[in-house]
Please model this.
Amino acid sequence: MKVIKYLLLLPFLGASLWATPNVLFIAVDDLRDWVGHLGGYPGAKTPNIDRLAKRGVSFTRAYCPAPLCNPSRISLMTGVAPYRSGVYGNGEKLRERLPDAVTLMQHFRASGYSVKGAGKVFHGTSAYDRDSWDFFFKQTGKKRNSFKRDPGLPEDAWVRWGPLDCGDDEMFDAKNAEWIISEMEKPQEKPFFLAYGLTKPHLDWKVPQKYFDLHPIEGIELPPVKKGDLSDLPVFGTKLAREVYDPSGEKNFAVKPDGDHANVVAHGQWRKAVQAYLATISFADAQIGRVLDSLDRSVHARKTIVVLWGDHGWHLGEKEHWRKHALWEVSTRTPLMFWVPGGAAKGQLCQRPVSLIDIYPTLVELCGLPQRYGMDGQSLKPLLEAPDQEWERPAVTTFGFRNHAIRTERWRYIQYSDGGQELYDHEADPNEWSNLASLPRYSSLKSQLAKWLPVTNVKPATKSSR
Ligand SMILES: [Ca+2]
Model:
């Protein structure tokens, strides 16, 4: 009898759970595919991100709208792609380029949610966009820097990494985690949208020593590289590999002689940098773990959707390149996972190419908010229910005016504004070492892929017009 009563209650229980799910929105800065379950680096240690992936669906081919913080995040949070907003670099401000945009957070607020955040969600001053937040937590007090640079290294050595002799509690991301946890422990009158933005593993790769100890230097492997890899690149591709290009003109092609890679290698820092990036990822993962634990302990656990995303990838020497700022796989691929309690697919990997710009319409649909029209992304809800289903649309990444990459499940096709092209076959060449674009036998494939190139390309703002 008891069982029958319980079964009769089930549909109502389900309805009440899903009438108003909460959202925990976790943004991770500069996180490439070096997380355990994505296998980008065999020794990556991210048990907490991996356990989140096991609960829901993780996208193995998730790509950024732009390989740089500001344009990636603004397009994710507005649903407007860089080629339609003209936000291409780190210099443009959200409300100067998109005064009327309804951000993801704004839409949740207008739909009756309590919307709060901490840390790096938007980039730079757009972080405090008044329309987006009911409350945004700002840390006060000075940052402590207990890092000692190796005195044996010359001034011009590029070394923004090394262990700190402090505890987690002195770190910016840990303090924000603490605040997020305190919010999670509160009873909530309204459904909530809570955003936790980590500033790591963005440079500097300086985290407490214990995270370096997780990745002993003698076990560090260098990323796979091919001698002469740049020889088949078009001119613009070579510039991207060697120089730091910010399309908003803030750091337009700032040059180090022969690029960052030559500098890192010359000063014996390659292995140390790989270790430091892994350590910084493990630090970020530990903070994410604290937040996930607090959600599990809270009364909100079974009615909170969790989405975790990185804003783009990061090179550590592949294509003799460091940082992001490029249209290759390593710069554009990043983790993206959803946990929808009670969702159909659990512990599954989805291989379809998707974009971070799809997050906005996905959350709108999952939470039953009023639909938004004119978004450049599309809801991933069908893939969260059946990750293997067909998915026609490729992911599009834009870097600056009229430079685009199209990524299907098998191919990456890049077209630069000066006409330069690259084409890679990921079935045969996962490292993108052989540019096939000049081979005549691929011309019809290139035309098919080129159909996905954006038709609209909004001109960038000049520095004086900002
Ligand atoms: Ca970033």
In short: The chain has one domain: 22-228+267-390. The radius of gyration is 22 Å. Residues 29-30, 69, 202, 311-312 surround calcium ion (CB under 6 Å).
